[in-house]
Amino acid sequence: MEAFAILLAAGKGTRMKSELPKVLHPVGGIPMVGHLVKELESMPVNQIMVVIGHKGELVKKYLGTRTIYAEQAEQLGTAHAVLQCEPLLRNRCGSTLVLTGDTPLIRQSTIERLLAAQGEGSCSGVVLTAMVHDPTGYGRIIRDPLSGEVIDIVEEKDATPEQKRITEINTGIFCFDNESLFRALPGIANNNAQNEFYLTDIVKVMRQTGISGGPKRFEAIVLENPEEVMGINTPEQLEEANRVFYARTGMFA
């Protein structure tokens, strides 16, 4: 069975207050996206695709021929970004990882667990989640109260007061059955507070269209250490990510 990886690296990262694409800011002296590519290169992944947008030529210059590229000319959301890879992947069978290019602290073992869970369980998809004390700003994981299956992911701006009390959050990292992924993507709409095509809506679309549910469930793996997927959207968060990196590796900045 083949495996593919899509890295989302098209965002501007406005809050970084820098002209550099967010994924090129360094953690431990290496651009964020470089950490992810390095991890994937040492895994049985047949193809690594990077979705580029804002100043994408700089990302291509850094990564060179290590990956192939898809361009998201307009930033219309994460589902729209993944859809740019359809010409490269639509007729392939296997598992497709979707990772955000600004999560350089994720461990290879975590990615391997995600890939194994999708392949061995024949799931339509698996989402990486985390339990946090303060879920503010994150999408909330909605589970079936009886089966525990993931049935929806609701973004903070669209969540009800009750849903906002849920402390299991979406990390933005997934592994899909490739055929199921590209069957479901066209069904995602942008009728939300941001007017964007959210990849998180794929859970709901898969259930509505019968792609998931029943024997082909949408599952979740709960991350033990949320630091692996800490958000890096500001210079302060970048500094914290560097602190975590150097503490983990025993190196000094």
Automatic annotation (TrEMBL):
MobA-like NTP transferase domain mapped to chain residues: 5-130
Keyword set, alphabetical order: Acyltransferase, Nucleotidyltransferase, Transferase
Protein origin, superkingdom: Bacteria
Gene3D superfamilies reported in the protein's UniProt record: Spore Coat Polysaccharide Biosynthesis Protein SpsA, Chain A
Transport found in the keyword field: no
Species of origin: Paenibacillus planticolens
UniProt xrefs under InterPro entries: GlmU-like, MobA-like_NTP_Trfase, Nucleotide-diphossugar_trans
The UniProt record lists the keyword Transferase: yes
Family the UniProt entry places it in: In the N-terminal section; belongs to the N-acetylglucosamine-1-phosphate uridyltransferase family. In the C-terminal section; belongs to the transferase hexapeptide repeat family.
Role: Catalyzes the last two sequential reactions in the de novo biosynthetic pathway for UDP-N-acetylglucosamine (UDP-GlcNAc). The C-terminal domain catalyzes the transfer of acetyl group from acetyl coenzyme A to glucosamine-1-phosphate (GlcN-1-P) to produce N-acetylglucosamine-1-phosphate (GlcNAc-1-P), which is converted into UDP-GlcNAc by the transfer of uridine 5-monophosphate (from uridine 5-triphosphate), a reaction catalyzed by the N-terminal domain.
Protein name: NTP transferase domain-containing protein
GO function terms (MF aspect): transferase activity
Catalytic activity: alpha-D-glucosamine 1-phosphate + acetyl-CoA = N-acetyl-alpha-D-glucosamine 1-phosphate + CoA + H(+); N-acetyl-alpha-D-glucosamine 1-phosphate + UTP + H(+) = UDP-N-acetyl-alpha-D-glucosamine + diphosphate
